[in-house]
Amino acid sequence: MKKTLALITLVSASVLSGPSNAMPVSFDLEYTGYWELDGGGSLLGTLIADEGAAVDGVIDFGSELLSWTWDWTGNSFVSAFSMSSFDAGAEISNMGANTGIFVDGTPNLPGFADGLDQGVFTGGDAGQFRIDFEFLTIEDRTFSFPFGGDLTTGDTTSPTGMITTIGPIVVEGVPEPATYLLFAAAAAGVLAIQRPRRQQMAGRLAQNGALA
């Protein structure tokens, strides 16, 4: 397998409901360069977990992930969409004994190459959106649910594929639950500011001097 570059995991302004001493941490992940044969496309996601969950270097999706949001920018096969853990059809499946992501600088790699199963995320009000992070398949079954749908599959060995990690960054303030829900709703607009956000990611990478 060709070496896969590390992608950008940035912290967004994360908000969680819960006790004031429960220090949440936020990670933003971007997957790029895997779907070039299908016209491009990238994934931008925000994962939130408690601070203590990151101590061992891995966020376990089965027991430690508090919330998530994923935005697909779209390509020739699957149009852009957003989904989150607040969706009625939200689910994470294929969770084995080692399911999650590295947050200690260890590269996250598709195709089970890193020893972890990044799982399958399903979202949308009817569970019509589906992302398999090991095989890099993106599916939108909006117009043909539940049988098949628009599908794009990334190349897990692509030399241009990138996955990266910065952080974790602790969120010291914990807003009220209503504020958290507003943040989740606002996340749907991230596609409109994709380019500026990537520039901010690059700036944080330069600041931290920690490109994996």
Describe the structure.
The protein has 212 residues and is α+β, with helices and mostly antiparallel strands. The chain has 2 helices and 15 strands. It has helices at residues 177-186, 194-208; strands spanning 5-6, 9-10, 24-31, 43-50, 58-60, 65-72, 81-84, 91-93, 100-102, 120-123, 129-132, 137-140, 150-153, 162-163, 169-170. Strands 2, 3, 4, 6, 7 and 15 form a 6-stranded antiparallel beta sheet that branches. Strands 8-10-11-12-13 form a 5-stranded antiparallel beta sheet, with no helix packed on it. A two-stranded parallel ribbon has the order 1-14. A hairpin with an 8-residue loop joins β6 (65-72) and β7. The longest helix is centred in the last third of the chain and has 15 residues, at 194-208. The radius of gyration is 16 Å and the shape is globular. The model is unreliable at 1-20, 174-202 and 208-212 (pLDDT under 50).
